[in-house]
Amino acid sequence: MPEIQTDLVVRWDGRPTNEAPTLLLLHGLTDSGAGWREAVTHWGRDYAVLIVDQRGHGESPRFTRDQLAAHPGEVMVEDAIAVLEQLGSAPVVVGHSLGGAVALTVAVRRPDLVRGVVLEDPAPRGPDDAQRDPSRGEGMVEGLRASLDAPDDDALLRLRRESHPTWPESELLVTGRAEQQMDLEYLEYGDYKPTTPWTELFAELTVPALVLTGDGPEGICVDEEVEQGLADIGNGNVTLARVEGAGHCVRREQPEEFYALVDDWLRVN
User: What is the number of helices (H) and of strands (E) in the chain?
Assistant: First the structure.
């Protein structure tokens, strides 16, 4: 497994085999690479797994003022491409939410670097969405207030259990800590996603993609409108699976179904 030269925090895990591709895992907004513990336990038996703290998250560097002005989502895409260029072989990129938007954008812009993408309720920019919304940023910071104000890990863990009672215990505290580690200036800026809208990205995608989402009426990115849009685009590289009983974080809310669907897809892609 190659040493990756980057200013981001990255770590390798898992046991690679000759037959299996590397998996590159990209977390969502306000999460960090530490939030993939269950995924590493599951996939690390058969795959080399590369985990990244995306810029502004976890222990990776904060965004500079110039990077904020250049659109943070675009900077994240450049970060991911810089990592991928050092791998030597094309991995499958697994991305959740914002990480899914980054993975999708990278796959369209540099398909030579990507074997395929697994997109867990991805959150690319909508064609009519404003690129930057400072009021959204204020709301994001306020949404983290309880975690930011938690006096210690015991209080933070109790808070996470109350907020996410169905999530795996192993990922509760680390995701709370990830919220505490956030680059608040970046969050307040209110510009998170790569600039290309999902309609263009899915139309131009040339590598295999598995899109997984939930069936809840609220809280998911791939809603009925997006599903219809994907059907209208008709890109045969894209497979959509809707998981009953899951919301935005499919792998934490319905893990058995999530991993069964992804494992089946990985076996043929």
Answer: 13, 7
How large is the greatest C-alpha to C-alpha distance in the chain, in angstroms? 50
The 8-class DSSP code of residue 125 comes to: P
| Cα–Cα nearest to 150, from 175, 180, 187 | 180
Task: Compute CA distances 236 → 47, 71, 222, whole Å.
Answer: 26, 30, 18
CB 76 within 8 A of CB 168: no
DSSP 32-93: -GGGGHHHHHHHTTTSEEEEEE-TTSTTSPPPPHHHHHT-HHHHHHHHHHHHHTTSSSPPEE
Q: Distance between CA 134 and CA 190 in Å, rounded?
A: 5
Phi-psi category of residue 71: left, alpha or beta, with phi > 0 → left and psi -120 to 50 → alpha: left
Contact 56, 62 (CB under 8 A): yes
Confidence band, pLDDT 50/70/90 cuts, at residue 216: confident
Single-letter code of the amino acid located at 5: Q
Q: What is the per-residue pLDDT across 100-122, written as a single tens digit (0 to 9) for each?
A: 999 999 999 999 999 999 999 99
User: Edge-to-edge, what's the strand order for the sheet holding 48-53?
Assistant: 9-14, 48-53, 23-26, 92-96, 116-120, 209-214, 238-243
H, E, C per residue of 168-186? CHHHHHHHHHHHHHCCHHH
Residue 197, burial from CB neighbour count under 10 angstroms (0-12, 13-18, 19+): middle
245: part of which helix (H) or strand (E)? none
Contact 260, 250 (CB under 8 A): no
**What are the angstrom distances between the C-alpha of 138 and each of 70, 134, 145, 259?**
20, 6, 11, 35
